[in-house]
Amino acid sequence: MSELENIAKQMVAKGKGILAADESTGTMTKRLSSVNVESTSENRLKFRETLFSSEGMKNNIGGVILYDETIKQKTSSGKSIPDLIKSFGSIPGIKVDTGAKKLAGSPEEKITEGLDGLRERLAEYYKLGARFTKWRAVYNISEKYPSELAIKSNAHALARYAALVQETKMVPIVEPEVLMDGEHDITKCYEVTSKVLKECFRELKLHKVNLKGTILKPNMVLPGNKSKNKSNTAEIAKITLKCLKESVPSDVPGIAFLSGGQTEIEATENLNEINKINNTNFLMSFSYGRALQQSALKNWAKNIKDINSTQKIFNHRSKMNGLSTSAKWTIDLEKQSTA
Question: Which 3 state secondary structure label does DSSP give 129?
Fold first, then answer.
């Protein structure tokens, strides 16, 4: 097995998933402002260091996606952030896209940028300790969208990115996110997600990307957040699994879902339900940002010096998601005290 294949499997090994701590400075400022904490580079580092040095990292986090600022920072003890993550048995990774911009020819939609100078940036990140990367494409659903142009151009960019990443001996996370904003029902989300995934894998093959050394980070198939037709967990799991079986080649070792607007509990429960019926060889795991961090952040904001209680909350959340990768999560375990 190649080194890339090894890394990909480690990231989503049973009981483990990925912590998405790659919020841009702008996004992190919004998160910190929402809990009345000033967004300085020192405070951003303090919160992340609190999470990265938690016991939950050892047991349930296989990889951490970092932002450009964070991968270059040093901890309070002088250790680099990638070294801190490695010391807890997790793999450091890095977000390498430069954000979604208006798509020329269809300005209501987005194209993700960041291919210019990417080869050189990847070489730098590898030296800093990163062993995997992330690139996110976003698609909105409406009567008109996503257009063929958005589907094809984002798939092409994802494939070019993935090929460059593997050339640098890192594992690419391919993240085509069909957004849950809108009034669409679950069937519409299934149709769009299927189309998006099939086009992505067509381009990845064309660009000679080794699928065994990649991780897919898709959305779950969900009704829109303004949909009148709600779906239960069993239906979400069934249609999500059907979509992935039909659209994702079996060479892909792991699928790490994004939480995409779900609450912490919903994201855990839905993943647990998917794993209950998972009859594929895919390791079905998580790559959550808010759904792993939100409760911890709210607690941390009350007293940023009380590291212990914030870590307890993060450990509990990590453990619950870890259990959901093996369909061992229950609402009773969820309610158990984090103390």
Answer: coil
Check: pTM over 0.90? Answer yes or no: yes
Over residues 36-53, the pLDDT tens digits come to: 999 999 999 999 999 999
* Structure token pair of residue 311: 């870590």
User: CATH number, domain at 47?
Assistant: 3.20.20.70
pLDDT tens for 119-153 read 999 999 999 999 999 999 999 999 999 999 999 99
Single out the catalytic residue among 49, 175, 199, 203: 175
Q: How many distinct structural domains can be found in the chain?
A: 1
Which is the catalytic residue, given 16, 188, 217, 312? 217
Question: What is the C-alpha separation between 336 and 244, in angstroms, rounded?
Answer: 33
Q: Contact, 22 vs 48, CB < 8 A?
A: no
Q: Are strands 215-216 and 254-257 parallel, antiparallel or unpaired?
A: parallel
217 catalytically annotated? yes
From the CB of residue 77, how many other CB atoms can be counted at a distance below 10 Å?
A: 8
By residue range, what is the domain housing residue 10?
3-335
